[in-house]
Write a structure and sequence with these properties.
The protein is α+β, with helices and mostly antiparallel strands and about 140 residues long. The protein is about 25% helix and about 25% strand. It folds into 2 domains: about 35 residues, no CATH class; about 90 residues.
């Protein structure tokens, strides 16, 4: 049976080795806890990926705000950005096959809907989305 003899110089050397190892370990761990800075770039995501970053505050986007008092059928493409505060910006409607025209006031009212960052989107990453909306 071997018993480690840690007396005198051996003990001092052994303690120094342990202290150096612990210091290196703690320094490495402290680097891991440094917060990640917010990305300045807007990330383009698909409609299905959007829920990984943001959820609609009231549950679902209300597209009917774009065509109040109009009976509409057809479809269109909407491109918009959700900024880091969960606000809709840069709304653009394209490829409209319906007989409606959204004015600036309707776009502004629609843009009042807000989003909440998901738990995984701790940096509140801004995203842009292109969605095809079908009305019937």
């Amino acid at each position: 049976m071997n018993i480690l003899n840690l007396s005198g110089k051996n003990l001092s050397h052994w303690l120094k080795s342990i202290l150096v190892s612990v210091t290196v370990l703690l320094t490495g761990c402290s680097c891991l806890s440094t917060p990640v800075s917010k990305p300045s770039q807007t990330l383009h995501v698909s409609v299905s990926e959007l829920s990984q970053y943001w959820i609609v505050k009231d549950g679902v986007l209300d597209w009917s705000m774009l065509f109040q008092d109009q009976i509409i059928t057809g479809d269109f493409t909407a491109k918009f950005t959700i900024n880091s505060q969960g606000e809709i910006q840069l709304m653009d409607l394209m490829q409209i096959s319906a007989s409606f025209k959204a004015d600036e006031l309707q776009l502004e009212i629609f843009s009042r809907q807000s989003f909440i960052a998901t738990k995984d989107n701790y940096s509140s990453q801004a995203v842009s989305v292109t969605a095809r909306v079908m009305l019937n």
